[in-house]
Amino acid sequence: MAKSKAQLAKANKKRQQMINNKRRSNGSNGNSRRPGLLIEAQSRIGRHINMLLDPCQAVIGPTAYRGSDGFVNRFNVVSSITSSAGTNTAWVMAFYPAYNGIWAGAVADALTPVTPSWITPGPGQTFLNNTADSQRAVAACIKAEYAGTELNRQGVIYSGVLPVSALTGTTTLLQLQNLCQAVERTPDHMMEVKWVPTSIEETYWENGVGTPSDTGDRNAIIFIGSGFTQGIVHNFQTTLVAEWRPMWGQGFMQPTPNTPDAPAGLERVREVLSTMGNWYVEGVRTAAAAIAVGAQAARATRSISRMRNLITA
User: Fold this and answer.
1) H helix or E strand, kind and range, residue 19
2) d(CA 45, CA 263)
3) Which residues contact 48 (CB under 8 A, 6 or more apart)?
4) Is-above-0.85 flag for pTM?
5) CA 246 to chain CA centroid, nearest Å
6) pLDDT score for 21
7) Residue 113: closest CA among 169, 163, 160
8) 82 forms bridges with which residues in the sheet?
9) What is the pLDDT of residue 180?
10) pLDDT-based confidence at 295, cuts 50/70/90?
11) Annotation: CATH topology of 41-312
12) How many Cβ atoms are within 10 Å of 209's Cβ, its own excluded?
């Protein structure tokens, strides 16, 4: 018996629903570009996490930030703070990645008034001032090392990641010490503090206009040393991974503005890093710690894969 028009319409509707369901289960949703977008998003987020965890050595490339891509490069600078015994007993080394400026120097003691100033150019800033129209920080760190004799190794080191707004006006190192997240007696190994980005860091700032705005939402890295009665001799390596766009007259072509944003990219990066504890002030120095970080990285991969629902919905 011939099927009625209503029955045929119902059968066609059911068939189309099965096709749509199959496409959805394959992650394509009828659009062959979507699986590629998922892979690109995972790649950007995973790479950005690695750059934050290891600014000095991680593979660099497109980031998880929203907005147009720029060129991504790694810069570093080596410096030192020295002072003879009996002159200064405290020192500070701070780095403002968004502005790419450094505040560093020795002071008489931790009670001496100081005024933070970012006039010392950070890693690669001379190049960026002459070449970049705008820039934004991707990852950064400071490595610090006591370079004196074991006999004279003394003092206490305070370190952490602070909002730039806390590093304004006249204060003392003693007051700034209270803000730091980590403290230890001067160790016989390399210390490291890594930068933690906030959502405002996705915004490029224009070179030559002034310091970036919203300092309450931007972070800086800081080391403070005090109690060095036998003299100060510390070495530092400051590293910045920066994303920048070229100014005219340099022979560069602007990167394409038509690039995909990883859905909730920086939010996902911060979510994954939040599961790793105080990763920004704690180095991996033992096999047990390395295994723990490996387990966290596996969980990070699973977290990134959840973005599939955002992209294929």
Assistant:
1) helix 5-25
2) 10
3) 63, 64, 65, 138, 139, 265, 266, 269
4) no
5) 21
6) 67
7) 169
8) 233
9) 95
10) low
11) Jelly Rolls (2.60.120)
12) 9
